[in-house]
Every structure is written in structure tokens, then in C-alpha cells.
């Protein structure tokens, strides 16, 4: 049976990427060696790293002011590394609190300098993206989480400010075009739209660095990795290779504008299935804040007893990963780049069939 | 043609591990999904993580005093993380300087507390393991690099001291039994004997932690990862899986005593080929310090012109990765667990044939 993988991350990647990655583990480019056993300084792997960097630049339209890094440690390491490299007692980091990941970023930053939470949707259990709040002058940066994987909200427009942004784009990078010039730094754990777990993308504006006085361990200083082209030490070879293959697929399939069209069509189908269905409710307050990547929904009040039967029917139809994040419950259908519209239709049909039976 | 991979790291892994890893990228355990697209919190992956931890404990005979962590960032991140978590101004870290990696560990530690280099072989270009030096009392720990990947030296006996050791075992972990009770902390980048690049093993004695006063970012505090079983955030799924497969292979092939016998036989063959050959010289001063993992050698003085022709003959015979580290030149044959004696014989034969032609 064909599987439809709605997992929030690690998540679906294009099928041809899995095929090529499996082959590279057996024999990389006809070398007679596995990709896993060759030197990260071999011409064969440095070509991969170069191509991955060029694809990131190309797809996002990055100017020369930016550097592209492939690091380790996940987006969670960027929560503190951004502040460690950009913030000190002379400055102030502004943060918008739109979910658990934003909250962790705020917590980690506080150790490195003054932090001001300029807006938060915490009081409404993060069911909206705050809008219309004043943004103070003189912030070192304004940190946002562009897509809130757990709560199913997403920025459709960037905050209006002259201050440069720092953004956690873990769950919507490469899903649509971005005005990258607005950012000092963008980071993303690869394991949604970009690749498998084990590599973290960092895009940083060179002129934002070197302004804090503190000691930074060599491995935590972005400048180390800029100078050494992400090869100061052994980079995560296989995760980078699979990311490169995935970005090649994005480009071959029309780039970010094409991804956006594809993703919006899937989201439309998914939210229509939720809204039209009498057994299910979306969790996000306003339609405009709904994530194109992660559609979160619940059973209507009083029918929570149908939780397990619904997940069972999903599994029977080959739809996996539909369970919501353990911290919020309910359901979540993640609709990353690699997912087809047909798979979303399968889930919509399951919801419909379920309602025929139980409503 | 069969390839004989003498690369220093990323390095050769057992052939069946490559086969199983490739299959898991296509379809993991018959799930109909790639290992790369499943949640790190799925029962299928947590079983992998558990088995990997149990194998590490089992193979090394770890007591309950120790925790086993699978982290990101490479051994290079451990250079500072060890000191950040264990050392402060009230203590003193002792270091033995036996090569470039030791020197980096010393440099990174200095930011976190007093550091004393108790012995160094730097003056002789790191061609020996220091012995018979006094070790001061009252050290917080004594840091050693058990195998010096670049210079081809290896500790055959641990320093005599009651102080607990901290060790970089990146290039000889799982190659022989270790008296683990002597250590407060052991770390190793996976990409030699344990797995592919992208995961770092840390073994830490619980009672060594929590003694420094400084703020430690959540992701850099070993206690975070202990509490969350290496899943505080998304772990490097595929590198951990391949490491688990490799450790299974080590166990199925007799464990660390069997690895030791196997590795010593290969090293004996390799060093005999070097010593008996009039064109080549070993680089390590005393036979007892020679690494069982990385055999370093040079052309004899005056015949450096033969450098390129020798590497060419190696490649023709399928022997790859024989070039020495870019910082020292010469040659290096790495003989990790997964390498067969037959492959070492092929290299020895190449050296012999080369000498027949040129000596
Ligand atoms: C928006 C966002 N930020 C951060 C993270 C944490 O990423 P990592 O597990 O790579 O540390 C996640 C993980 O799902 C996420 O969705
Ligand atoms: C002994 C030793 N320590 C540390 C390192 C650095 O490891 P990593 O590249 O994982 O940071 C290496 C790499 O070869 C090594 O051989
Ligand atoms: Mg969230
Ligand atoms: Mg509805
Ligand atoms: Mg060395
Ligand atoms: Mg000789």
C-alpha cells in the first residue's frame, strides 16, 4: 500500500531523493566506495558541499552580503548561538513569542543580553500570529519563528520594521519565496523541507558578525565556519548530501514559486476538508494565520472519544504521522514540499468517510 | 576492482552495514517509509537509539555510574564542552599534548578555567607518547588523546594517576578493551570505528557533572541530554542508525577483544612492510608508541621524488586514502576495525612491488 507521510519532522522527502541516497550509501558516483566512507575533504564530497551552497543561494536569491553554513546541533542550538554571536549587554534582542519554539529561543537568548518580548500569542494558546504591536527602536534584531510547527500558525507577511530580522524558518524554509534582505540571520533544522535530521542551515549576513565582545568557543563562532566553508571539522556528510539532492529536486520542479503554488493548493484542499467537515475544527483563530505547512485540527467538543478510531482509519488508508504534537494533542497534517496533492486527497477522503460513519 | 579504503575518517565501515543502511533509506524495517522520513520519537527509531546505547554499554563494560549520549557537533565541540561542563576557576585541567587534536582541546579549555600542560611531545613533532612525567595532585581531570590520528601515535598504557581521565578516543574507540572506570568522560566523533560523520559519542560519569557554577546553554549541558535520553531535540537519526549497525557488527564479530586481536594482526603486517622496506621509514620514534589504527610512514630521505608515483601505484591496486594528513605530508594507512587483513596485504604487496621497481 502506498504510504502518505504527514509527519511533522523528520518528514517526507521526494521519492527519487531516497533512491539516490540509498544508492550513494552502496556506491557513491561509481567510486566503488560508499558515501559514508570517503573523506569530507575529497573532491567528490567538496563538490556536494559546493553544490548545496549554490542551490541555497540560488533558490533564495541571496546577495553576496550573506554566507551559507551547514552546521550541526539542530535549530535548538541556534536558539543560543544566534544570541551568543549577535547580542550583548549593549544591545537588545526583540522577540515575538508565537509558540514553544519561540519560547525556547527567548529563554536561551536571555543569558547573553537584554531580551524584550515585543508580542506574544501565549494567552490564547498560540492560536494566532500577533499583529499591530509597536516595535521599539534600537533593537539589535527582531527574532521571529516564521512557521509554528506545533500550533499550525505561520506569518504571511513579515513584521513591519526597519530592524533586521533573525528567523527560525525550520518548518517553512524553501516552501515559498522570501525577501531575504530583511534578515540578519535565518536558521533551519533540515528535517522538514530540506533534508534528513543531522544538519542545520544557517544563512548569515556577514556585517552582523564580530560586534560582540565575549569569548566564543571556536565551534560556536559563525566566523569559524564561514572561513572554513562549513569544513572546520568533519561536517555531517550524509545529511548534507541528502539536503543537496532535495534542493536539486526543488529547483528541477520550478523553484520556490512553484513550491508555493503547489503548497497552497494542498493547504486549500486540507483546510476545506477540515472546515466542511462537521466532526473536525481547525485550531487556528483566523484563516489568514493558518500554516500552509502544518494543518492542525481537533475533533469537535464532545466527540473526543473518536480520537483513536480516527487515527486507526488514517493508518488503514496509509496515512501516517497525523497525530498532533504530544504537547497539544489533536491532529496535525504536515504538507511539506515533497507531499503530493493526491496524498492530501486521500486524507480528505478518510476524514469524509469517517464522518459518514460517525457523525 | 575491489577497493581497499585506508582513509583516516570518515572511514571504512563493514560492508553489510552499508547494505543494511542503504535498504533502510529505501524502506525501514518494512514500514513502507524511509528511515529518513520517520519521527525520531517513533517506536521504530527509539528502539534504534536504545539498542545503540545498550551496545555501547555492553561492548565497553560500562557501570551504572556512566551515561551514554549521542550528540552532534563532532569531537571538536567536545574540546570546549568538556571544559565548559567540568572545569571552572576553582579547579585545574591537566592536559597531555600529543598532537594537533590535543592542542585544540587545550586551546578551547583555556577559556573555562586554569589549564596545565603536564607533558608534550610537540618539540619532536609529536613522534612519541610522553612517559614518566610528574602529574600534579589536585587536577580536576587529566585530558589525553588516546590515539593521535595525524601523527600515528597511541597510548598503550594509560597515565599512572589517581586523577580521573577525560579522553578524546575519536580514532581508537571500540578497537580494543578499555578500563572505563578510569575515566570521568570519553568522547569520540563517530566517523572512524563507530559510524559515519554526524554523530558524536559521549560517555560521562554522572557524579562528575553539576560542579561548575557558570550558565550553560541548554543544548551544551550534558545533563539536558542525559535527562532526555539524547532526544531533547531531533537527534541525527541516520548517523545513529548506522552506528548502531556497526556496533552490532562489532559484537557479532566477537567484541572488543576480538577487534584487538584482528587490529594487532593488521598493524603487525603493516609495520613489518614499512620496516622491511628500504624505501620507506616509519615516522614514530619508538615501536611501542606506534598506533594500531593509523600507520604513518614516509619515503626515505632523498627519495621524496617518489611520492606521486607511489600514490599512483596504490590507486591502481585499489588502495585509496593512503596520502598523509595535509598538515604533515607523507603516507598514512588507517586500519580501523572494518578493514580486513587481506586489504593490508594488498598494500604491503604494492609497497614491495614499488620497491622492486624503484629501489
Ligand atoms: C520551528 C522549529 N524550531 C525549532 C525546532 C527544533 O529543531 P531541532 O530538533 O533541529 O533542534 C523545531 C523542531 O521541530 C521546529 O519545528
Ligand atoms: C583524535 C581526533 N580528535 C578530534 C577530531 C575532530 O573530530 P570532528 O571532525 O568530529 O570534530 C579528529 C578528527 O579526525 C580526531 O582524529
Ligand atoms: Mg511551535
Ligand atoms: Mg469543520
Ligand atoms: Mg593527532
Ligand atoms: Mg623501512
UniProtKB/TrEMBL annotation, chains A, B:
Q: Cofactor note from UniProt?
A: Binds 1 pyridoxal phosphate per subunit.
The family annotation for this protein states: Belongs to the class-V pyridoxal-phosphate-dependent aminotransferase family. SerC subfamily.
List residues binding L-glutamate: 41
Which GO biological process annotations does it have? Answer: L-serine biosynthetic process; pyridoxine biosynthetic process
Care to name a GO molecular-function term for this sequence?
A: pyridoxal phosphate binding
Among Pfam families, the record links this protein to: Aminotran_5
Per its record, how is this protein called by name? Phosphoserine aminotransferase
Task: Write down the EC number.
Answer: 2.6.1.52
Q: What cofactors does this protein use? A: pyridoxal 5'-phosphate
Q: What is its main location?
A: cytoplasm
Keywords in UniProt for this one?
Answer: Amino-acid biosynthesis, Aminotransferase, Cytoplasm, Pyridoxal phosphate, Pyridoxine biosynthesis, Serine biosynthesis, Transferase
- Pathway the protein acts in: Cofactor biosynthesis; pyridoxine 5'-phosphate biosynthesis; pyridoxine 5'-phosphate from D-erythrose 4-phosphate: step 3/5; Amino-acid biosynthesis; L-serine biosynthesis; L-serine from 3-phospho-D-glycerate: step 2/3
Assembly and partners are described as: Homodimer.
Its lineage reads: Bacteria, Pseudomonadati, Bacteroidota, Saprospiria, Saprospirales
PANTHER family given in the database record: PHOSPHOSERINE AMINOTRANSFERASE
Q: What does this protein do?
A: Catalyzes the reversible conversion of 3-phosphohydroxypyruvate to phosphoserine and of 3-hydroxy-2-oxo-4-phosphonooxybutanoate to phosphohydroxythreonine.
- Modification N6-(pyridoxal phosphate)lysine occurs at: 192
- Identify the residues that the record assigns to the Aminotransferase class V domain, covering every copy: 5-347
Q: Which SUPFAM superfamilies match?
A: PLP-dependent transferases
Q: Which gene is the coding source of this polypeptide chain?
A: serC
